[in-house]
Write a structure and sequence with these properties.
With 182 residues, this protein is mainly alpha-helical. Helices cover 65% and strands 8% of the residues. It is built from 5 helices and 3 strands; from the N terminus they run ααααβββα. The chain has a 3-stranded antiparallel sheet with strand order 1-2-3. The termini are far apart.
């Protein structure tokens, strides 16, 4: 049995990794939001803050935002043959980011299991046990989705997110260059 301070230090890495994921995710969402604002300004919107009023509404969570991003860029670029490559990359990015959104939702809305505080039936559980599950019942009955079994699982999710964020960063600059090209 651990005392509270031993318990806290035992899980600091897990808490830290989850926090890093959440912060990186929100940075990515903000980058997408800001890019949309730049696009509208490039398309003739004179008051930048008007786009902030639109895209910073609480309804514009990650999935509607990325959907809007893809729709707007398609609408602007669909008539240009030289845009096919960048539109494909935008579509590919959306698919990857949509998977990240599911991971983020699972991490934020999952049930966390830490060591001996975890209710476990059928044997002993190690003091350093860490896991994240999420109830996911379907027509066949109860089901638990295993999100993570160890800190390294969350680290892997974070690395995937960073890779997708960096991909968007590069895509953003190429897209803006493409839009400003006459």
């Amino acid at each position: 049995m651990h005392n509270k301070s031993e318990e806290t230090s035992l899980w600091n890495d897990q808490y830290s990794m989850i926090g890093k994921f959440v912060v990186t995710f929100e940075e990515t969402v903000n980058l997408i939001r800001y890019t949309l604002q730049l696009i509208l300004q490039q398309q003739g919107l004179k008051t930048f803050s008007l786009s902030a009023i639109i895209f910073e509404q609480k309804q514009f969570t990650a999935e509607p935002l990325i959907s809007c991003f893809e729709s707007i860029t398609n609408e602007i670029l669909k008539q240009k043959d030289e845009s096919k490559d960048i539109l494909k990359r935008i579509s590919d990015f959306r698919k990857k980011f949509s998977k990240i959104i599911i991971i983020r939702n699972d991490l934020l809305h999952g049930t966390y299991h830490f060591g001996e505080n975890h209710l476990f039936i059928g044997g002993e559980i190690p003091d350093d046990y860490f896991g994240i599950t999420k109830g996911s019942p379907n027509k066949e009955g109860a089901r638990k989705k295993q999100i993570a079994n160890k800190k390294e699982d969350v680290e892997k999710y974070l690395e995937e997110l960073k890779k997708v964020r960096n991909e968007f960063w590069n895509l953003k600059f190429e897209l803006l260059r493409h839009l400003y090209k006459k």
